[in-house]
Amino acid sequence: MRIRAILLLAVLAWTALAAPVPTPESHFGHQIGVDRTVLDWDKVVSYFQKLAASSDRIRFREIGKSTEGRPLVAAWISSAANIKNLGRYQQIQQRLADPRRTPPAEAEKLIAEGKTVVLITGSIHATEIAATHTAIQFAYQLLTQDKPKFRVILDNTIFILAPSINPDGLDLVTAWYRKTLGTPFEGTSPPELYQKYVGHDNNRDWYIFSQAETRAAISQLHNVWHPHIVYDVHQQGPYASRMFVPPWMDPIEPNIDPIIAQQCNLIGTAMATDLTAAGKTGVVINALYDYWTPARHYQSYHGGLRILTESASARIASPITVKPEQISEGGLGYNPRQASWNYLEPWKGGEWRLRDIIDYQLIAWESLLFEASVRRADFVRNFYAIHQRAVARKSPYAFVVPASQYDPGSARKLLETLAFGLVEIERASAPFTAGGKQYPPGTYVIRMQQPYSAFAKTLLE
To answer: Which long-range contacts (CB under 8 A, 24 or more apart) does 200-204 make?
Structure first.
């Protein structure tokens, strides 16, 4: 009897593990991207929990709480073998991020072993709901479709997916949208801030770290995993291009390493190529958005790329019809009505839906991850090289912050902000002279010969 009971338990356990990956439709009650469908955050969270329970290629956890107490979550998706060894790949990233303790010979061994770490975040602007829908659809496809590109992606990348880093706003927009369906206000923005304290500017908090959502993403994802690529998925207005992808316009912030900027060009043009090859028109590059300011580009001062896409919006989840004469006559860096080298196939108007946005994003996500996977060794090696260049910085040698301050609270906040961004801060134990001026013991010294000197230099300049 005892043996039979043990066998029965083993069969039941195997059956539970072998349960099929749930479809989005079975969980949400409709296909992803159907007109006039929006998602509740608790249902998004529970869907990813179900994915993690049904597949050995995904790990899921809560990384913190939002301003209003909702769970902030992330999923790690890779091959089953990689998922089992996540700790090892995290350790490799930490070693390669600091060339001072990882000599080149050791780095080469780690580069051969390491994976490209890609973080995709969505829906930081809460009316830009498509990215959360895309996250659900893409995760399901990646876990269930056995196709060559997906196998390469799973084998060679550690894909970290944060379906929304503003769940408070997502629920606010969902509630408002449902409330106004069938009224003149259908598809409008809610008449209140969709991030409690900073509203639309919540994506400009990546240098001061004032919000709970930013601090969770930085402390639990960026600073722990040091992603090679961070892809921030956004939406734009409906009357011009269908999607912007890098290359960025000038100016490019001079403290962003040129290797990073060139890799952004590589990834962005690959995305544009794949979108065009899939028959998607209205793709613009090298227009609209520059590569400036640490307020949005945290990872670009920490050895990694920040990729942005901006997809044309619908009316939240309601279709919109754009007449040819409604298309903008001019855009920054291109004309949305005319073909040009950076806007080869203009979108000429028509109906535009939530599902259209998702379809463009699905192609862009797969393109980015495939490029990251087939050039795995290049991204990992370049990450190390970027930090080698940072620790070799000669000018300026250092910044000093005197201990005696007219406003000591502000000075302390400055130092705490730098430290949260992984900047190393020393304190003088004896008097010293720099630039012809003497400084007493207790003076804070921020040397530039450190991995994240670009971040310190940008803020302190």
So the answer is: 200/125, 202/124, 202/125, 202/166, 202/169, 203/124, 203/125, 203/232, 203/234, 203/296, 204/293, 204/295, 204/296
